[in-house]
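2024-03-11 09:14:02 INFO queue: dequeued item Amino acid/polyamine/organocation transporter, APC superfamily (TC 2.A.3), len=450
2024-03-11 09:14:02 INFO validating residues
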Amino acid sequence: MSSDYKQNSLSLTDAVAMGTGVMIGAGILALTGQIAELAGPWFPMAFVAGGVVTGFSAYTYVKMSNAWPSAGGIGMILKKAYGPTTVAAGAALLMALSMVINESLVARTFATYFMRGLGMEPEGWLVPAIGVGLIVVAYLVNASGNRSVGLLSQIMAVLKVGGIALFGIAALWAGGFSFEATGSAETGLGGFVASLALAILAFKGFTTITNSGAEITDPHRNVGRAIVISIAICAAVYLLVAFAVGASLPLGRIVEAKDYALAEAAEPALGRIGFYLTVALALVATASGVIASIFAVSRMLAMLTDMKMIPHSHFGMPGTILDHTLVYTVVIAGALTIFFDLSRIASLGAFFYLVMDMLIHWGVWRHLREEIGARGWVLLTAIGLDAIVLGAFTVMKWQSDPTIVLIALAGMATVFGFEHVFLRRNPPADDPHDHGQATGRGGARDEQAP
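2024-03-11 09:14:37 INFO prediction written
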């Protein structure tokens, strides 16, 4: 497997471009309206609070990646924390699925903005058809090799970060730096806290960098640096654009146009030309987001296969495991794009990601914090913040859409059940470099229940 990866093929700039590519592609474009629906007029602050929670969360990934940079970063962290167990494999698969879910979220967002740019209502079969078309194009770019992904990610990252930031500044200027999205939020504090689940989802693209650790130059330093830089850039862009949208549209209109809020905010602030420029920026942002996400998740699935934590079949396809996982990634993302709308895709991704994130922090706190020099209180704070946000989000979704809560629970139960059966039938050999093999006091530890 190691021969399938090219060390030093991604620079620090490439890594930052990939991280911002995934985050901005999904975050500000796909989720602004959904966050406003939950948080009310405080939705710009939801991005700030989400960034703070993400900062605590990123601490674990930075510490682990600095110690053990890996092409399957999340899988590596979980295996070192828990050993080759159901918990490690199930949580890693949840992360991979949440990344695939992100691809379908961004692909449908691309389709929504594309149709708005043509003056069409984003509905009907054309939305999933265009989304699947983007996923196929992203597959072709990824299949052409790392250098194409890195160079394209850099170009698109500069275009969209600069362009979306200019949109925010211009919209605020045109709106006289006022804030039109005022009014009382019906959901109150609970809605605001629940909205942080989606805000956190808007930042989760930093894990793309973790999953490409073995291919980044000087990874022991640059993986952590790339994560911090990406989160900082995205937090600034999110806050700027959220205020710009709030300066152009009343809250009710933002919620009504939640799937294409930036395009809707552009026209009253910047005119018809501004509208079309914003649509163009959205298309660049979402396209690069899908390309970067597919790049990362295919590598994570390949690493999990190499770790013997998930099954693999080539289905008669030629090439390496990495080639096969690239195909699996786009097929699953395409299916989700067809069968789920934006709101449910985002909710499912939030459930999977937050559960996985808590399992990572707990495993590192319990087994690895001393070895990597991590502060225990930071890890426990990350767990607590995730738990509060997940609880509030679950309550809100249970009230508005209980079906997606049941789908998420069934999905997680299926993942852990599947991994339990698979690992019992195909027990991986113990790796002496995995650090979750003992409690430190009581000798060999039992497998952790999720």
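2024-03-11 09:14:37 INFO annotate: Confidence is low (pLDDT under 50) at residues 435-450.
2024-03-11 09:14:38 INFO item closed
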